[in-house]
């Protein structure tokens, strides 16, 4: 699976958009980009995923560059409850005999400031 | 919403004890996973299962085994707990082997003394 690179931490003012970048320059053609977040002492929560088109749901938007080597997760109006570690992961469907699924890195600690 | 329930939030066990961590999901997912999470190391895959009675080793299976007797339940077993198995253990499930996302439980923080 491709590796991802994220900044270790970011701050964002409450009510403003939070833009979290992720670099995945070695992504292969069938790998999707997934975003999860983990609030302290809870399990990771799925946010959104995409292949090459931009995606939007009730939580966030995902912008993937045309070459697919990077992406940005956008939380349009950040609240204090969005303070969490955000993980960008790339992965492909499980294939027979594959021992790897989604590989989580260290993520970005987003702190939303009042 | 998918619910993945881990039986204990906190557990303290002694070195050498046999430990069972239980996980149940309520959405008829075929695939279930056990991860451990440690500071600075991210999430590491221990074992996963495609189906009942099926299991495959992840990246760090040593010292662990699993059991999947029913589709909704996936158990992680520490045959003889050691202090280096003190960690946060996370169970997850997903609908298919394709692109569906993982859904996680809230974790079990295990301390081995």
Rg of chain A to the nearest angstrom?
A: 14 Å
Work out the oligomeric state of the chains in this entry.
heterodimer
The secondary-structure class of chain B comes to mainly beta
Specify which chain pair forms the largest interface. Answer: A-B, 23 and 27 residues
Main beta-sheet strand count, sense and barrel state of chain A: 5 strands, mixed
Q: Which ranges of chain A are low-confidence, i.e. pLDDT below 50, for 5 or more consecutive residues? A: 96-100
Radius of gyration of chain B: 13 Å
Shape of chain B, please?
globular
Number of helices of chain A: 0
Helix-strand topology string of chain B? EEEEEEEEEEEE
Considering DSSP H and I runs of 4 or more, what fraction of the residues of chain B is helical? under 10%
Q: What is the overall pLDDT average of chain B?
A: 92
Q: Indicate the low-confidence ranges of chain B by residue numbers.
A: none
Strand order of the largest sheet of chain A: 1-9-8-3-4
How many beta-strand runs of chain B?
Answer: 12
How many distinct beta strands of chain A? Answer: 9
Helix content of chain A: under 10%
What global shape of chain A is seen? globular
**Which series of helices and strands of chain A comes N to C?**
EEEEEEEEE
Briefly say what this structure is.
The complex is a heterodimer of chains A (114) and B (113). By secondary structure, chain A is mainly β.
